[in-house]
Amino acid sequence: MSCPLTDFIKQPARGVLYDLNRDKLTTITLATEDNLRWINDYAVAVLIEYLINLVNDITDERNEYKKKCEELENEKALH
Question: What dihedral angle (degrees, nearest 10) is formed by the CA atoms of 14, 17, 49, 42?
Answer without folding.
Answer: 120
